[in-house]
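Quick check before the chapter quiz. The format below is the same one you will see on the exam, so make sure you can read both the input and the output lines.
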Amino acid sequence: MDVGTIIKERRALLGISQQDLSDYSGVGISTIKDLERGVGNPSLETLKKILEVVGLEMIFQVKQTVK
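Here is the expected output.
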């Protein structure tokens, strides 16, 4: 599942519109629409603002390789 779908589902669960998410996060509505459609490429800072509003967080994990 991609991040846009996760945000869309979480936003729906919280009962907030795309416009609400835009207003609360300070991120443009077009950016939110693009992200939810899977065509957006937001910066990490933008993504962090959106995730904070919907109560999610980013966790990065370094993949280990076998030599």
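If your answer matched, good. The chain has four helices and no strands.
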